[in-house]
Amino acid sequence: MSSGWSSGDIPDLAGRVAVVTGANSGLGYVTARELARKGARVVLACRNERRGNAAGDRMAAEVPDARIEFGRLDLGDLASVRDFAASFGYDRLDLLVNNAGVMAPPYGTTADGFETQFGVNHLGHFALTGLLLPVLLRTPGARVVTVSSMMHVLANVDLGDLDSRRRYRRWVAYGRSKSANLLFVHELARRADAARGPGLVAAAAHPGYAATNLQTAGPRAEGRRAAERAMTAANLVFAQSAEAGALPTLYAATAPGVRSDSFTGPAVAMWRGAPAPSWRAPWTRDDTIARRLWDASERLTGVSYDAVLKGA
Q: Is the entire prediction scored with pTM above 0.85?
């Protein structure tokens, strides 16, 4: 992997179709814009229609020949996830970027009653990927890239308390949801390879510490002004830009030779720099935990992968 890899190294994507969740701001916006810049048709999968369309207008101004469209997707509502997948109107899907997420909010639940971070960051993307799996498998060379975090090191999933009902600690719950992302990628890669052989690439990426509104959204929503100011100051001093933070995702999505179950992040201490293979906690490659989380996720979402993977 070249230490100088940049968005300029993204190959021509003309004729390709991509879906990017959370594409209205931050890393998702940069990811979608750069894919569109290289010729991909990009669906901006966002919860808020006004913000999604505004992002599309801004993207069109930055990339005048961009082929983009808005698709309403609320990952905290499985009915919305099903509606999005059912309305997907293309006969191919080359790239699904599971980017959207929430970070360290106060305890809350999704429309389906799941703890918000587990429900949005993991279960929503698990359901979305499963529902789009038929078109992904019909597309030669398709990739699913799921955005995790270096903060996954805070905690493994708790299979006995996936919703953190016994004790909710916001940062531990965030770490668990990001570990769930990596376990999902690990198990999807294993199952896809076992059922279909090499084809679909399931990879993960993380941005290191990138300055986006993800860090400040929680404190702002709660009215914790001091925490919001502290996060804003930390972003200014320590973080790299969203432009740089999106590079590992773009690498995992487009660079040749990316392998299933790989984890790409910034080269320098998982913090900043060009894309490079990233260290991950050993539990994120635990086959037993991955299978049990997968089974629980299928049960909770009602989305099964087996029939599709086996070609039924």
A: yes
